[in-house]
């Protein structure tokens, strides 16, 4: 009798198991679906993180490129300033040379004026000499004769 009871119990359990089996399969399927969804979400998160990292790298590269461009611009500006200073120095040197040339010309002009003044003074002395020579001789004939004598004797 116990055996029959056990068999009946076993039958009931098998029946219950048969009834619960689709339910268990459905639950297992739901669990697998949930796991799949979780994996998909994790993959999406990883993809998003990778995209963010890529964006960050791109931004860093852009900042480095801008800094390099700025440095190049600064270098060009420095080169331009150096060229302008060199040009200014050359202009000052040219101006100094022109000033020196002008000073030299002025000195030459002063020398020429001094020479002219000396010539004029010499001419004046000669005129004074002739004047005194004519003044202290007696007649015009004697004056001319003395003048020619003086000129040819010298």
Automatic annotation (TrEMBL):
Annotated TM spans: 36-69, 76-103, 109-135
Highest taxon listed in the record's lineage: Eukaryota
Key words of the record: Membrane, Transmembrane, Transmembrane helix
Source organism phylogeny: Eukaryota, Metazoa, Spiralia, Lophotrochozoa, Mollusca
Protein name stated in the entry: Uncharacterized protein
């Amino acid at each position: 009798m116990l055996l029959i009871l056990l068999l009946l119990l076993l039958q009931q359990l098998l029946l219950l198991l048969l009834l619960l089996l689709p339910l268990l399969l459905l639950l297992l399927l739901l669990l697998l679906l949930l796991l799949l969804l979780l994996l998909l979400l994790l993959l999406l998160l990883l993809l998003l993180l990778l995209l963010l990292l890529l964006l960050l790298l791109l931004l860093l590269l852009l900042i480095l490129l801008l800094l390099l461009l700025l440095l190049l611009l600064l270098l060009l500006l420095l080169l331009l300033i150096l060229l302008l200073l060199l040009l200014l120095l050359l202009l000052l040197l040219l101006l100094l040379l022109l000033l020196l040339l002008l000073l030299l010309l002025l000195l030459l002009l002063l020398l020429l004026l001094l020479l002219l003044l000396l010539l004029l003074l010499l001419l004046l002395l000669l005129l004074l000499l002739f004047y005194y020579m004519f003044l202290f001789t007696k007649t015009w004939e004697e004056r001319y004769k003395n003048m020619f004598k003086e000129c040819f004797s010298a």
